[in-house]
Amino acid sequence: MATIQSKDNKTIFFNYFKSLSQTPHRLRKRMLATWTPDQELNQVRLRSGADMKRKLKWYDLVALGVGGMLGVGVFVTTGPVARNHSGPSVFISYIIAGISALLSSLCYTEFSVQIPVAGGAFSYLRVTFGEFVGYFAGANILMEYVLSNAAVARSFTEYLCSAFGISDPNSWRVEVPGLLQGYNKLDFSAVALVLILTFCLCHSTKESSILNLIMTAFHIVFFGFIIIMGFCNGSVENLVKPTGLTPNGIRGVLDGAAIVYFSYIGYDSVSTLAEEIQNPLVTLPVGIIGSVFIVSGLYCLMALALCVMVPYNQIAEKASYSMAFQRIGWKWAGNIVGAGASLGIVASLLVAMLGQARYLCVIGRARLVPSWLSKVHPSTGTPLNATLFLGLCTASIALFTDLDIVIEIISIGTLLVFYLVANALIYRKYVLTSKNPPFPTLSFLFLITSCAIGFSISWKLEQQWWGLPLFGGIIMVVTAFFQYTVPCLRPPSEWSVPFMPWPAAVSIFLNVFLMTTLKMLSFQRFAIWGLLITLFYVLYGVHSTFEAEEMGMKMAVNEVPNPSIQLTKLEV
To answer: What CATH number does the domain containing 42 carry?
Structure first.
């Protein structure tokens, strides 16, 4: 037996090294290989075994979108951004980030209506730009979800402490001497929360949605309490004291906008539920766009309420709202805020963990990760393996890692994916399935991105103000020229982004600009992550998908009774 096993291991290693020798050939075949929407909807989806169960309605989707975003944004980022970047104008940062998120959500909505599968941005980019771009975006989405969920789970501990009247947010964490700063405070409450939600999500999507609907309803009532009490007991003078509405100028407002973009992680998870909703053509636009509108309004009001209660330089970076009520003498209200925020964080964590598992499931269907992660449990209709795997990853990071270490790398990953989706929508509408050659569209996308980078560099250098009107003007002229010279031959679908290509072009510009406001350390960490996932693709993903497609082609040939029948190949 040992001899046979040894021979099997040698065979496996031999085959793997033989595959590695063919890497250049396989990269040429697979990196730009695309799937059609019909293949995504039918052929690829069958790889999960059982289908997901369509039980969700439009109000479930709106509640999931609202619940997914609310707990993250206000309770995690508002305090630090107001204190260190935007000052009392943090609500303007939310408006700017909200406009960018709304434009991105329009792009997501059109794609989700045309390709209603659980893969979200991964599937949209794979059918447009090919396998590698889809994989790179999907890996970044998973990184963004896992890190943000870990950060949110740790903030749950801080607000739970506040609910019990404990002022020190680290009092429920275990400090371990010898570990690096930022990784040395173990948070077992966060781990327990993540594991409990993981097991709930494994059981049923519909029951999880009902739980979220109840929590979100209470959460909105609770938001109303904070907004009303904040405005009634605050002072408008705090918006201009001690150093004006924008103490760090427009630069501080925009830096803050890039960070609070973290708050809008959540609406994209709604698109991953496309295989579990009834009437996706109507439900998806209402769920995605409706949730972004509702949350943007609540974010602005909550940010204003915080800044009228307490001068921005006295806002606590941890559990900001609880501490604000305690500062005005309402300790009991601070406890209520802590309890309500904890509830909101649970709702947002539930939705985000729901979305991340579906992303991984569809990436598994594509064979870019081990296929067992794509399996859907036949009785529960949930991606069981993906849910358990990512739940354990999230719990492990939540145990060690402080919020400050992950928050900016989350923002850069989110902005990059939204940037790619906006590019993909323009390319798909103006090139694919139409008679337009790709060169004009690719040139337009290149010019928009280059001008956005030039505008951002001029903004960074401060002295080069002439670059702002120059690059801004070029973007407007180029977009108008493209709109009138390149016809959009693609027939309108049931739902389509209006005034194209302007919304997608503005989304591209804003995402690039907001990315450049982040710190260099974020780009360094992101570069390391990008290198790791590219290495994984080269060593595993490309070989797995190449062999899966070769096997699929052979099976298809064997099933065709007439040899003259030609198989349809992937578009490259």
So the answer is: 1.20.1740.10
